[in-house]
Design a protein that fits this description.
Oligomer: single chain
Order of helices and strands: HHEEHEEHHEEHE
CATH architecture of the largest domain: 2-Layer Sandwich
Radius of gyration: 16 Å
Number of helices: 6
CATH class of the largest domain: Alpha Beta
Shape: globular
Length: about 200
């Protein structure tokens, strides 16, 4: 059973942050008073109209969740998709992402490099536990968990966890990483979160 899925649910994810215009992790763009949810939804300010439409189509996939990580690279009219998603029939985020991008006017070819993660009951237990550990923390859940599109994504492969997405400050980043490491049966936690305001102090 896929938990927290759907555009209106708590765990819809970025992706990954997941979808910068290039294959590199997203960097903070634009005014620093933007919150992480706005940045996550809007993407880089210098993105082309084509990239913005691709991003929109990916973000509005019906079952895209915090357990998925999607990004893309645009080269002319050719779009390369990357990232990872867990297998869970009948949902097929990998194929749905490619189909959604093919619908964008101006796209002539889609190269689908989205990785299909192993079908593992243990990994699903870890995913559920990580969501509870991270979004269940009052410091994190109240500011990140109740967004229409939470910006912290949890990718699990064979017991190894990768955190992707966007957070507001270094304190949040450290707290999220610490919480992720408390989950049993996790072999490693890789922190790929982008910190929008590294020098910002903890919010009171």
């Amino acid at each position: 059973m896929r938990l927290y899925s759907g555009l209106s649910c708590i765990a819809l994810l970025a992706t990954s942050f997941a979808m910068p215009q290039s294959s590199n992790p997203p960097q903070p763009n634009g005014p620093q008073n933007q919150n992480n949810d706005q940045v996550f939804l809007a993407g880089p300010e210098n993105a082309t109209q084509l990239a913005r439409q691709i991003r929109h189509n990916l973000l509005t996939l019906p079952y895209y969740s915090v357990f998925d990580d999607l990004y893309f690279n645009v080269s002319g009219s050719v779009v390369t998709l990357g990232g990872a998603c867990p297998p869970e029939p009948p949902w097929d985020i990998r194929s749905e992402a490619a189909a959604a991008v093919k619908q964008v006017k101006g796209v002539t070819q889609v190269i689908n490099n989205i990785k299909l993660l192993p079908l593992s009951p243990m990994d699903w237990e870890i995913r559920r536990a990580e969501v509870k550990a991270i979004y269940g923390d009052s410091e994190i859940g109240t500011r990140y968990g109740y967004q229409a599109l939470p910006s912290i994504h949890i990718i699990v492969e064979n017991g190894h966890v990768t955190l992707t997405g966007v957070v507001d400050n270094q304190f949040d980043n450290t707290l999220i990483r610490t919480r992720a490491n408390t989950v049993p049966n996790v072999f490693s936690v890789t922190d790929n979160l982008v910190v929008l305001n590294p020098g910002k102090k903890k919010e009171k």
